[in-house]
Design a protein that fits this description.
By secondary structure, the protein is mainly α. The protein is built from one helix and three strands. The longest helix has 108 residues, at 22-129.
């Protein structure tokens, strides 16, 4: 029941004067509740998103650490391979040096054996002459 349709005043069921009619007031309250529910859902969603972001940040940090470990391991393997190659070259050089030394020793042995044979022949001739 309207007091005055020109001024927009209404009286509700409990005989209070209202500026808005009952239907508009009810829709306003309903809209307020829906907005409150929507804001609550947005807050819940924001908390879920924040949790997801924290989880992803943690995972990205862990991935980055593992990536750095893998890079370090790869560099170590490359370094070890280079070191092994260098060591192999040194050993090849040492083998060549030892073979050269062995050949010199063989030549020296042959020379000494020849000198020994000549001296033995000289001694034998000397003994036979006496």
């Amino acid at each position: 029941m309207a007091l005055d349709d020109n001024y927009g005043f209404d009286i509700d069921d409990i005989n209070k004067i209202r500026v808005l009619d009952n239907e508009t007031g009810t829709k306003t309250l309903q809209l307020r509740e829906e907005c409150k529910d929507f804001v609550d859902k947005i807050d819940d969603f924001q908390q879920i998103v924040n949790g997801f972001i924290e989880l992803m940040d943690g995972l990205s940090s862990e991935v980055e650490r593992e990536k750095l470990k893998a890079i370090g391991a790869r560099n170590l393997l490359k370094s070890m391979a280079k070191q092994r190659e260098s060591q192999q070259q040194q050993l090849i050089g040492l083998i060549h040096e030892k073979r050269t030394q062995l050949e010199r020793y063989r030549i020296q042995l042959q020379s000494l054996e020849k000198a020994e044979a000549e001296q033995q022949e000289f001694i034998d001739q000397f003994v036979l002459q006496k």
